[in-house]
Amino acid sequence: MTWRRLAERDFPLLMSWLRQPHVARWWNHETSLATVSRDFGPAARGEEPSEDLLVHLDDSPVGLVQRCRLSDYPEYLAELATLAEVPPGAMTLDYLIGEPHHIGRGLGTRMIQSVVRATWTDHPDAPCVLVPVSAANQASWRVLEKAGLRRVAEGDLEPDNPVDDRAHYLYRIDRPGAAGSGT
Fold first, then answer.
1. Which residues are within 8 A (CB) of 90 and not within 5 positions of it... i.e. 6 or more apart?
2. Is residue 34 part of a domain?
3. pTM value > 0.85
4. What is the rounded distance in angstroms from the CA atom of residue 44 to the CA atom of residue 76?
5. Residues 18 and 94: beta-carbon distance below 8 Å
6. Is residue 181 situated within a structural domain?
7. What pLDDT digit, counting tens, does each position of 33-64 carry?
């Protein structure tokens, strides 16, 4: 697996992925070019600190991982801090597999594992990665578990999709060799 930053030329592909029922259910994002440009353009142009990574398998795009330092988004950090301690420098991820025929093949697990491993190099001061996930999204939290993250908290967070309740799980993986990481 490889990845590169999402570019504006990728917005039509991202729009098609956001329209897929398995993605739309959990991402609940408008799919017009204007809204995708508005919401993903600043990161693609380097105007925002988050990283939107277009993930490839054998040179074909298969998914998207959003990665950011929680301290760059204070309101989000404060919300997660209601569930568990958020160490300085902690990172978070969000992710999707674009096409239905890629689901159930272990790509999500590989994608998360790859990006987490790279996070330790790309962000040398990051002590951990914290990932909140809707308790109702069993496929997503199972991918996190298979990728080596462990559930550290449960509680209420604002859902991405208003049809969901506020119940969320918080998953964590620590930098290998860090105190308390168990590695």
1. 69, 70, 71, 126, 127, 128, 129, 130
2. yes
3. yes
4. 21
5. no
6. no
7. 999 999 999 999 999 999 999 999 999 999 99
Per-residue tokens: 111: 């994608």
For the domain that residue 67 is a member of, what is the CATH number?
3.40.630.30
- In terms of residue numbers, what domain contains 50? 2-174
51-57: strand order across its sheet: 2-5, 51-57, 60-69, 91-97, 128-134, 167-174, 150-156
**Number of residues assigned to the chain:** 183
pLDDT band at 180; cut points 50, 70, 90: low
Tell me, rounded to whole angstroms, the distance of Cα 165 from its chain centroid: 20
Is 30 part of any domain? yes
Q: Percent of the chain, pLDDT > 90?
A: 84
Q: How many domains does the chain have?
A: 1
In the chain, the N- to C-terminal Cα span, in Å, equals 24
The residue whose two tokens read 């918080």 is 170
What number is the average pLDDT over the span 151-166? Answer: 91
Q: Using alpha carbons, list the distances in angstroms from residue 96 to 60, 65, 121.
A: 15, 7, 23
